[in-house]
UniProtKB/TrEMBL annotation:
It comes from the Bacteria. InterPro entries: Haem_Oase-like_multi-hlx. This is Biliverdin-producing heme oxygenase. SUPFAM superfamilies: Heme oxygenase-like (SSF48613).
Length: 202
């Protein structure tokens, strides 16, 4: 039996409908898997509209980043990210707190040294946190803080194009266990939630 070109197209279209969708990239899987804790953290941080809320933000961010940065410094990472260097913000945050006469809070409990895939997930969270730096820099400036006083951690010229470069490397890196990476990312968000909850208690 002869198949017409139109029938051939219909058959091809039907066959495509049974093909599994292409697997999502790791970055998209991590974004989907952390959407709920990410949204909850945004609500916990709240609007930074005055000096009191800015001080709370600094306390929470320092309490979160100091132990996670220390854990990542000890950790091995997947080969594709081996030469990626996290820019530590904890020292800058400590200086910002000093500028405001704000005692550094007790950091969140230091997490165990993560495995390579979990470390990749934690890096995803810390690198992604820089995306909102421009907006925060504007808000800090309205309160009188800048790279010279109180907002050193937001003056980050090294961030230009950094996020795009990171997620490209993340997606291309071989040997990452997606479930372990997601667990690492979720653990980072859980630590941030605890840190910001504690930052509100004085």
């Amino acid at each position: 039996m002869r198949v017409t070109p139109r029938e051939e197209r219909v058959i091809r279209d039907r066959m495509r409908s049974f093909e599994p969708p292409p697997s999502a990239s790791l970055r998209h899987m991590l974004r989907a898997g952390t959407r709920a804790p990410h949204d909850a953290l945004d609500r916990a941080v709240g609007a930074i509209a005055d000096e009191a809320s800015y001080r709370r933000y600094l306390r929470g961010l320092y309490a979160f980043r100091a132990p996670v940065e220390a854990a990542l410094e000890r950790a091995a990472v997947p080969e594709g990210l081996a030469d990626w260097r996290l820019v530590p913000l904890a020292p800058r945050l400590r200086a910002d707190l000093d500028d405001l006469g704000e005692p550094a809070p007790r950091p969140d409990d230091c997490p165990e040294t993560p495995g390579p895939s979990a470390a990749a997930g934690m890096l995803y969270v810390l690198e992604g946190a820089a995306i909102g730096a421009n907006l925060l820099r504007v808000r800090a400036a309205r309160l009188g803080f800048d790279a010279g006083r109180g907002a050193r951690h937001l003056a980050r010229p090294e961030e230009a194009g950094r996020w795009g470069a990171f997620v490209a490397r993340l997606d291309a890196a071989a040997g990452i266990d997606p479930e372990a990476a997601l667990a690492g990312a979720q653990a980072a968000f859980a630590g941030a939630a605890r840190a910001f909850a504690g930052a509100g208690a004085r």
